[in-house]
Structures are given as C-alpha cells and as structure tokens.
Amino acid sequence: MRLGVLFSGGKDSCFACYRAMKKEKVVCLISLISKNEESYMFHTPNISLTDVQAEAMDLPIITHETEGEKETELKDLREAIMTAKRRYRIDGIVTGAIDSVYQSSRIQRICNDLDLWCFNPLWQIDQLKLLRELISEGFRVIITGVFAYPFNEKWLGRDIDKKTVKELEDLRIKYRISPSGEGGEIETFVYDAPIFKRRIEITKAKRIYSRYSGIYKIEGVRYVEK
Amino acid sequence: MILIIDMCYKRESLSKNEFVDPVVDIVSCKKSYIVKHFLELKEEDIFRAEKIILCGTALKDNEFMNHIEKFYWIRDTEKYILGICAGMEVISLVFGGKLRKETEIGMREINVRIDDPLFEGRKNFSAYELHNYSVDKLDQFLILAESENSIQAIRHREKKIYGLMFHPEVRNKKIISTFVDL
C-alpha cells in the first residue's frame, strides 16, 4: 500500500511514520502550515522545518498553507490530501493521533470521502510507553513548545531522555499533565530517528517565553552525515 | 485465557496497532491472553479460550467478509464472545443477518434499551463510532442499545454472545474489563 503521512515534525507523526514504514510503503509526507498559532488541528512551532526533516528522510513533502481557522483548515487538509492522492497515487493516510477523537474523526471522514485508508498506529497508546519506545528506538527529540503550568523556560530546547520522561511522569501524577503532550501542553521536534538518512543539527535557536507558555524557535540547521 | 482475534486485512498489519493493541492493553491488566489473526485461528485456540474478543477494523477494511466461513464456529461455541464493530458484523452474518450501509464516525450518544451488566446501570452514554455498515434486527438477538441511526449493542437470546457496534476500547474501556470479569 502507498501511504502519505500527515507530518508536523513532532514525535508523534514521526513515530507513526516509522511504524508505517515497517509495514507499508510511505511515499510522501503532508504538512499543513497553519498561520494560526492556536490551530485546532495542526501544531505550529517550527512547522516550517518539516521540509528540512523530509529531506533528511529522503521523502517528498506536500506543504499546504492554512489560515488555521476551525473548519477552513479541514478544507485545506482535504485539498492537501487530494494533492497527495493525485501526485503520489496514495492509497491511504497515516496520522500520529493518540487520543483526540476530535482530530481523528475529522481525518477519518475526509479519508472515507476520498476512498482512502486511514491508519492511526499510535491510537490509544500509553503515553509513557510511547516516550520510552521513542528513546529505545533511537529517536532524538527536543521540546520546542510549552503551554501549561508548571513548565518553565528551562524545558524549551530540552532533549527527551530517560530523565525527562521521569519528570514528565511526575508531572502527570502531580498536575495531570499528559506526558506526551497530547493535551497540547508540550510540542516537540525530531532531529534524528532511524528513518532519517541524515541527522539534523540545530545551529541557532532562541527561547521565547512568558508565564508558562513559550516556544523554542529554531533559526538555523545543518545536516550531519550518519 | 482470553483469545483476542485480529480481524484486520492481513497478519501483522499496520491496523493492528489501532484495533488490536488497545484491546490487548485493557485485557492484559486482568487476564492472560493470546492474539490470533482470523486466518490463522485453530480449533484448539477456541477450545483453550475462556472468553473470546473479535476486534474491529479500519473503515475501508472489509477483507474479513470474504472469509465468513472462517467464523462459523461462533454458531457452535458456548463460550463468552464479544464482537467489536467488524466483530459484531461477523456475528450478525454467521447467524443469517444482513448488513446495511450506515456510516457513523466520531462520538455518538448511545441509548440503552435493555439493562445488561456490561453497561453497569447506565441508561445512556457517549461512545466512539467508526463504521460504514450496521446490522439489522435478528430474531436470535436482543437489542441492548441503539444510537439515533443504528443498533449499537446486541446479546444472543440463549448464548453468551455480545456484539457492540461502537468501539469500547476508546472512551469506554470499562466495558471490556467488565466483559473479561463476567
């Protein structure tokens, strides 16, 4: 089966892509670039770097701009998927949805309308199990956005390693924060993975932070051979 | 031991993560289990099982319908069976029922018509739907619950066979735990 992956550059869509590649043929990535920082469907920090990641993975990418308003972004998503179907003859879509029925059911409806398969290989996965699996499988991920109490500025740019996972686990118990950020508390950027042909090195970045909300804006990158 | 049957289009498919693993996660907290794809199911698997769960499939995945004879054992067993979505469709088909086109995607309100231990006294609840077909009324089965558009839960009048059209592994995990404990 030829598949297109809805790709945000974060850990979930990247890991979903990894799982899809083990079972079927991933032929393209699809990214929606939302102009709205509070997009209902698509995360925003560093989304413009998805083409850098696609090149590191040696995969073509379809990028589609959206105003990011509630229902128009669904129309834009549909158009992007139609482009992938036409250009790369995909049979289906892969998403990194874990627990959001809002996000998942909308994508399911679009795929059903377009006669495409819809795969959600992380659906209902235990979020700590996902983080541990990411680390053990060789994914290198940093936190690029924090949007909830008690995350301070120090979390921005931090690698997700065993120590980070332990702290996120503690925050889940204490503050009911979703450890993988499914509730929108954190956003991430994958700079290396088993599916990357080349590693991405961040050469320049800045932290923009105020009152438990901030982003790690990546401003410079280069490829490193593996 | 609980036998969990993978109903997806092929063995070890990409859909397994989505439709089988969430059921495994719930069952594994309670009992030992084995997972078998419907094409590799053996008589001894059914014989050894205490209860049996038939999982759902992707919206476009109706491959199981091409192998309906692989499920005729359902008519003969006296064991507890829970069919989820595609699993309920199969249960209906092996008992001579018919399917009709009915798409429901996303959260829907479920109204309980006949109380059953699976619902723990609830009269209505929200559940996640993902199907393009629904089942028609079957004489051998009681209709336990319905949504606005389709039959959502059935129980055989004499056997210990349940069918659920919604996906209890999403937002209603307790129903699967309760089934395992029955």
Percent helix of chain A, as a range, is 25-40%
Main sheet properties of chain B? 9 strands, mixed
Task: Determine the CATH topology of chain B.
Answer: Rossmann fold
From N to C, what is the helix and strand string of chain A?
A: EHEHEHEHEHEHEEE
Structural class based on helices, strands and sheet pairing of chain B: alpha/beta
Q: What CATH architecture of the largest domain in chain A do you see?
A: 3-Layer(aba) Sandwich
What fraction strand of chain B? 25-35%
Q: The CATH topology of the largest domain in chain A is what?
A: Rossmann fold
Q: What's the gyration radius of chain B in Å?
A: 15 Å
**SSE string of chain B, helices as H and strands as E:** EHHEHEEHEEEEEH
What is the overall pLDDT average of chain A? 92
Number of domains of chain B: 1
Total E-strand runs of chain B: 9
Number of E strands of chain A: 9
Rg of chain A, Cα atoms, Å: 16 Å
Shape of chain B: globular
What spatial order of strands do you see in the largest sheet of chain A?
Answer: 3-2-1-4-5
Tell me the quaternary state.
heterodimer
Distance between the termini of chain A: 29 Å
Write up what this structure looks like.
The complex is a heterodimer of chains A (226) and B (182). Chain A is of the alpha/beta class. Chain A folds into 2 domains: 2-119, HUPs (Rossmann fold, 3-Layer(aba) Sandwich); 129-225, putative n-type atp pyrophosphatase, domain 2 (Alpha-Beta Complex), CATH 3.90.1490. Chain A is 33% helix and 30% strand. Chain A is globular. The two termini of chain A are 29 Å apart. Chain B is α/β, with parallel strands linked by helices. Chain B has 5 helices and 9 strands, in the order E-H-H-E-H-E-E-H-E-E-E-E-E-H. Chain B has helices at 16-19, 21-28, 43-48, 86-94, 173-181, and strands spanning 2-6, 33-37, 51-54, 80-84, 99-112, 124-135, 141-146, 151-156, 161-164. The mean pLDDT of chain B is 97. Classes of the chains: A alpha/beta (226), B alpha/beta (182). The A-B interface holds A 1, 19-20, 23-24, 92, 94, 101, 105, 108-109, 111-112, 115-126 and B 12-15, 17-18, 21-22, 25, 58-61, 103, 105-107, 128, 130, 132, 169-171.
